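Our preliminary data section would be incomplete without showing what the modeling component actually yields. Below, a chain of 134 amino acids is followed by its predicted structure, encoded as C-alpha cells that our downstream tools consume directly.
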Amino acid sequence: MIYLTKYNILLLIMIVILQYYNITMGATKTEHFTEKQNQLAIVLKAIAHPARIAIIEHLLKVKACICVDIVNEIPLAQPTISQHLRELKNAGVIKGNIEGTAICYCLDEKCLSLLSTYFSKMTDQIKKHNASCC
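Predicted structure:
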C-alpha cells in the first residue's frame, strides 16, 4: 500500500510539470543545423557569462598555462570558479585538468581559431554589404 503524504504529492506534481515542459517545450532540434553551427553555439553559450569572460581574459593576459589558484584573480568562491572552468572545458574553450585545487589551465587554440574565423567572415560580409544596408 502506498501512503501519499503531502511531500509525495508535491513530488508527483513536480514530476508531471517537468514531463509536461519536456514534451511541450520541445528540443533545440540541433539536427536541423550544421555541425559547425552547433559547435559555435556551444562555445558562445559557454563564454556568455561575465565570470567566464574574466577567466578567458586572465588566461590571455598571462600568455601561458597557469598552475595557480585562479580564485586569487577572479573575485568568486572556489566552487563557483570550478563550475565556470568546467563549463569552459566542456565546451572546448580551455584545456587542462580541472579536478582538484592545483590545476593547469590554458586556452584551446583550435577554439579561438574557430571563433576568430567566424567573426572575421562575419565582419567581411558586413563590410561588403554595408553600402546597401540601412
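The longest helix spans residues 109-129. The beta strands are 94-96, 105-107. Preliminary results of this kind motivate Aim 1 of the renewal.
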